[in-house]
Design a protein that fits this description.
With 177 residues, this protein is an alpha/beta fold. The protein has five helices and seven strands; from the N terminus they run H-E-H-E-H-E-H-E-H-E-E-E. The two termini are 22 Å apart.
Length: 177
């Protein structure tokens, strides 16, 4: 677990995955997409990559390496014309810094998992080629709970919002803390 450092297991049932990839609004799952299955199968983001593609009749590209380099990821994005991609925040920062041209074929880039760098978001927005979506959610809620599509003219200086709940999801603000 990223918050405790102690490994944990979370049961995910079919309806959790359906909530994530069917009848929702943070991704146009009806559009034809090519997904890159980059996340390890034990990481909750793999549910988005695998079931988002397969339950919606899309193509999923599997990266062969267990620990792909930035160059391998970049090459796969370009040669397979990947159109939708999820990257952890740290990997997003590295791709934006070192391989921004490999993101050119994307129609949507989702990133999240930890605090997002405003600098890197602005750098990604300068590419003006894809929808940039900040996603947030604990594993217990199955991958993503909220999303924020960063507008191209976004001028925020301090933080990137976690946005609003995806369809079929509720978020509660309990108090000011």
């Amino acid at each position: 677990s990223g918050t405790t450092g102690t490994p944990k297991g979370v049961q995910i049932i079919h309806s959790n995955i359906s909530r994530l990839v069917k009848g929702t609004d943070y991704v146009d799952f009806n559009a034809p997409h090519i997904y890159l299955q980059l996340s390890p199968i034990s990481f909750d983001a793999s549910t988005f990559e695998i079931w988002g593609s397969l339950l919606n009749g899309n193509k999923m590209i599997i990266i062969e390496s267990n620990r792909p380099t930035l160059d391998e990821i970049s090459q796969k994005l370009e040669t397979e014309n990947v159109t939708i991609l999820f990257l952890t925040t740290a990997l997003f920062n590295l791709m934006v810094d070192h391989h921004p041209s490999s993101l050119q074929n994307l129609r949507q880039l989702l990133m999240g998992g930890e605090a997002v760098s405003v600098h890197h978001v602005k750098k990604a927005l300068s590419l003006k080629k894809f929808t940039l979506t900040h996603v947030y959610g604990p594993t217990e809620n199955t991958t993503f709970s909220t999303y924020f599509n960063v507008p191209g003219e976004w001028k925020e200086q301090s933080t990137v919002p976690i946005g609003k709940p995806i369809n079929n999801t509720k978020a509660y603000i309990l108090n000011t803390d």
